[in-house]
Amino acid sequence: MLADILEPIEAELRYVSDLIEGHLTIKAGYLGDFAHLEFSYTDKTVRPALVILSSRIYGLARQKTALLASVFQFIHMASKVHQGISENDSNLARVRKDPRNASQFPVLVGDYLYGKFFTLLCDAGMTGLLQPLAEIICQIHEGSILKKKLDGKSQNSHEFYEAVRKETAELFAGCCTLGARMAGAPDKDQDLLKQFGRSLGMVYGLLEQGIPVKYAAAYLEKALSSLALLPDTPERKLMEKMTDLLSGRLPRRMVI
């Protein structure tokens, strides 16, 4: 299970989870009552874990790493809330029964979560990361627009793979790159981690869309090849195990 692989960074992941949970209750109530915030264990931990492990390869202090990991998870949560908004909330009975199925509350919740990522960066003195993070957010929403435009067309098309790259893989790449950058990693290693994160994100995104694993094989190979060129540390080995598990190369009992 993924939790077993990530046991060495359990304390940091718990810090991230507690920090995020602490921001989900506002005066109006718990945000999960206004938008769908249900995520699997994997979806709650994989991005923070990539930030933490990429930083720890180069020895960064735990708290600052965990703050950046929380920023990435807030971005992921906000984008998922916005992506899940129905374009037609005319079913009033359904909306009245559960406001999470409407559009107005989820839009506001998604915006709030994006706002939290800005606040965390400012409070931690990491505003230098605003530009690359803003670029990633633009990529995510471009991918969502492209996927909606495709509207169920061929999943073998170049446009479909581009949508997955923008919507999922670029955030993975950012987790690895910015985590390493903040820890002072050499530019060469940052590039390798970007390649690794993007490739792993493609594997994750394709499997998430129900694409057979054989179509993700080339991305898996590229991810592992990039990892092999990084410093041989316990964190790198954990990332290799994560990659094997998420791609189905190891037995797993989890939902992506």
TrEMBL record:
GO terms for molecular function: metal ion binding; prenyltransferase activity. One of its GO terms (biological process) is isoprenoid biosynthetic process. The keyword Metal-binding applies. It comes from the Bacteria. Its cofactor is Mg(2+). Keywords: Magnesium, Metal-binding, Transferase. Gene3D superfamilies: Farnesyl Diphosphate Synthase (1.10.600.10). The keyword Metal-binding applies. Belongs to the FPP/GGPP synthase family. This is Geranylgeranyl pyrophosphate synthase. It comes from Pelotomaculum thermopropionicum (strain DSM 13744 / JCM 10971 / SI).
